[in-house]
Specification:
heterodimer; A: 171 residues; alpha/beta; Hypothetical Protein Ychn, Chain: A; 5-stranded parallel sheet; 6 helices; 5 strands; 15% strand; disordered N terminus; B: 79 residues; alpha+beta; Translation Initiation Factor IF3; 4-stranded mixed sheet; 4 strands; 28% helix; globular
Chain lengths: 171, 79
């Protein structure tokens, strides 16, 4: 049996093409998700191999606008969970007014919207993964997630990927 | 000033980060090797981002200049 003693290093001096970026997307805030998708699409545009691992509140970014949950608490939680269009900013949301305002301002300045950014990430080959444990606990089914989600994995799969990455972010 | 003939003219005016780099990444695949893209943009961020994108992807930034609000840059596909 082959024994791996050390991860294979990328060739020194080589540009970022082919290097990996891995991200834990924990936040379900509009602003933080925006940052996550900007970094992800930017990295993909620079030729990097990007994986986004969505967990807990972050699952809202890859969730279809459906009601989920099977138990009483699960169904209650399902009422509060949003999809990518419904998430609000981490500050100044003011019951959804902040979300509305930021959407207006982003449109006025011709910045890409969150759903557009997510589609762009998918088109650029960014790998979207969902956290199995969060899905279980939050009672979200695999089919409640968008088709762009490649696989549902756990912490070991994420860490394996992270150790091979030059950049790992927690957002 | 453009002595080189561009294979593709790319209009990135009005677009904000990260769209200019994303569009460049998509466009560079459409020109042949050693092919040239001449792009115009208005987001001042491209002044730093396009050189960084070229350094990391290996493509060659032939020129970049800013006149008033419009930034024009020429990139050659290297690989």
């Amino acid at each position: 049996m082959a024994v791996l003693t050390a991860p294979v290093r990328e060739t020194a001096g080589e540009p970022t093409t082919g290097t990996k970026v891995s991200m834990v997307v924990f936040s379900g805030d509009m602003d933080k998700l925006n940052a996550a998708f900007i970094i992800a699409t930017g990295a993909a545009a620079m030729g990097m191999e990007v994986t986004m691992f969505f967990t807990f509140w972050g699952l809202q970014a890859i969730r279809k606008p459906v009601r989920n949950g099977s138990s009483l608490f699960g169904r209650m939680l399902g009422l509060f969970l949003k999809d990518i269009n419904g998430v609000g900013p981490s500050k100044l949301n003011m019951g959804g007014m902040g979300r509305w305002m930021f959407k207006k301002m982003m449109k006025a300045h011709n910045a890409a919207t969150l759903p557009e950014m997510r589609q762009m990430a998918i088109d650029l080959g960014v790998r979207l993964q969902a956290c199995q444990m969060s899905l279980d606990v939050m009672e979200i089914k695999r089919e409640d997630l968008i088709d762009g989600v490649e696989d549902v994995v756990g912490v070991a799969a994420f860490l394996e990927n992270a150790t091979q990455s030059k950049t790992t972010l927690f957002i | 000033m453009e002595a080189v003939k561009a294979d593709l003219a790319l209009d990135l005016k009005g677009l904000l980060c990260p769209i200019p780099v994303v569009k460049m990444a998509q466009a560079i695949k459409t020109v042949p090797l050693a092919g040239i893209i001449e792009a115009t943009a208005t987001d001042p961020g491209v002044m730093a981002d396009i050189p960084a994108w070229c350094r990391t992807t290996g493509h060659k930034l032939l020129s970049m200049e800013r006149r008033e609000k419009v930034i024009t840059f020429v990139v050659q596909r290297v690989k």
